[in-house]
């Protein structure tokens, strides 16, 4: 009986996370490189300006302070994005569209289910978080957060900095950034996001016993390459002394990134 209970605890009470692979959903590949039209993310920016609490090493969101009017503003913004046809825009506009949409949807999920201690508590009894739940419909296609990140963003753009752009409402995650992604400034914004995360201890923590890295570098090893390539990537953005990746451990904090 004790063995049965122990197995049950391992299966159903401990967080188990297997990162999805990058698998292209080819429907979302079309784009129009000649189209110079933009998509406004001003409403999302206003919400960030009002509710994002910025600290040197961590941004926090005031989920419990969002007014009824601003909840409606967020819903309206997401609805407006959902009726756009991303195929009509160029790649940079598409990238900003998908990243801002992902982050806005994540914030909406937390607000709608608040109070909650962690995003991994959402999604049902046997689910690790809400990432596989249908959350939006675009072009008559039902999408999940995992679809946006792993079937659109990662395979189409193939840029490891995507992991610093999408936010999962957790303290261990790269920060929800103060500025909405802008199609005219993507490369600079992605570099800023990488620099901010990599120079925080939640990404790289050096102790006398070795180096603790964010589990992001374990889950998405395929995106960052070999250990040598990962080391080069980290050192490219570090402003403190370079790291040598030996005696590595991985960790991640799923606690909610909230400001009370």
From TrEMBL:
Domain of life of the native organism: Bacteria
DUF547 domain residues: 88-198
PANTHER family on file: ELECTRON CARRIER/ PROTEIN DISULFIDE OXIDOREDUCTASE (PTHR46361), ELECTRON CARRIER_ PROTEIN DISULFIDE OXIDOREDUCTASE (PTHR46361:SF3)
This protein's name: DUF547 domain-containing protein
């Amino acid at each position: 009986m004790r063995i049965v209970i122990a197995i049950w605890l391992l299966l159903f009470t401990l967080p188990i996370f297997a990162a999805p692979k990058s698998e292209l959903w080819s429907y979302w590949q079309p784009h129009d490189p000649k189209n110079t039209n933009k998509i406004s993310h001003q409403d999302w920016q206003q919400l960030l300006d009002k509710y994002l609490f910025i600290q040197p090493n961590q941004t926090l969101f005031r989920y419990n302070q969002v007014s009824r009017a601003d909840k409606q503003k967020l819903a309206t913004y997401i609805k407006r994005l959902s009726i756009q046809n991303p195929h009509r825009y160029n790649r940079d506009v598409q990238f900003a569209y998908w990243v801002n949409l992902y982050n806005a949807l994540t914030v909406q999920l937390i607000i709608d289910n608040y109070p909650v201690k962690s995003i991994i508590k959402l999604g049902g009894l046997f689910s690790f978080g809400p990432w596989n739940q249908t959350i939006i419909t675009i072009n008559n296609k039902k999408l999940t957060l995992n679809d946006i990140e792993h079937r659109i963003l990662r395979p189409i753009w193939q840029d490891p900095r995507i992991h610093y752009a999408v936010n999962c409402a957790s303290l261990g995650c790269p920060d929800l950034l103060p500025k909405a992604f802008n199609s005219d400034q993507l490369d600079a914004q992605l570099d800023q996001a990488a620099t901010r995360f990599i120079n925080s201890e939640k990404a790289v923590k050096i102790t006398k016993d070795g180096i603790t890295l964010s589990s992001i570098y374990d889950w998405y090893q395929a995106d960052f390459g070999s250990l040598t390539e990962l080391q080069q990537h980290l050192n490219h953005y570090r402003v403190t002394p370079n790291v040598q990746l030996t005696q590595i451990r991985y960790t991640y904090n799923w606690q909610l990134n909230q400001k009370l």
